[in-house]
Amino acid sequence: MSRVVRRIYTLAETAERSLSVHSLPGLVPYSRALELQEDLAEKRRAGVINDTLLVLQHPPVYTIGKRPNFHNIISSEQELEKLGAEVHHIKRGGDVTWHGPGQAVLYPIVDVRGLGIGARRYVEGLEQLMVNVCTERGVNAEASKFGETGVWVGDRKIGAVGVRISRGISSHGIAFNVNPDLKWFSHIVPCGIIGKSVTSLALELEDESLDHARCAEALSQAFSKVFKYEDVSNHDNSISFLQDLTGVANIMLAKDNKKVAGLT
Description:
Radius of gyration: 19 Å
Strand content: 25-35%
Helix content: 25-40%
């Protein structure tokens, strides 16, 4: 019996590990970012784009992971929405958390298998890059305290990790508190850890004028260093640009599928 060996066209087949960093301006609606992640993950799995890192901020939104404890949501979803926040139930690991202005969010769409590590090591790397950024600014932070993922300054959480790895490709990622309004966290038990509080880099440094863009850039640079990317390209893009990019990838993938099927 003959076998058809399918080979997906790749944009970059080099010995170097490549990363495309896309910094999105403004506040990106959570639903749009989620759709974009899913689309990019599909393209990365098919091999038509390189590892990709999205760097952005969201408008106020509460996200609830796959295994939530609803006792950790102090206010009802209706009350949260009245405050001007959206509520989303999503497929990442972890409990309930908040995203919003002043918080740097990184969504790596990467081939974790290609990094040569497993899920645990990947999460530890995400924690480490946030620890490194804190250390560079004179803040003593630690990872995975109290038996929970994330990054802590004493008993105050400054960075959260919540990832999904599907067929080797990651999505979701980290949320690092640069200078958000921490009152938003009063409506939940962040990540389900009772008796602990949250903090921000601005609070720890007593500097409310902290430059968010520079901190977000430092996080993306730390990501590339921790995971040893040799070739890093940085882009300041809008969502429409990335949607155009994934549209091109769709066309390339469709053409490849036709070739495999003998239609061209």
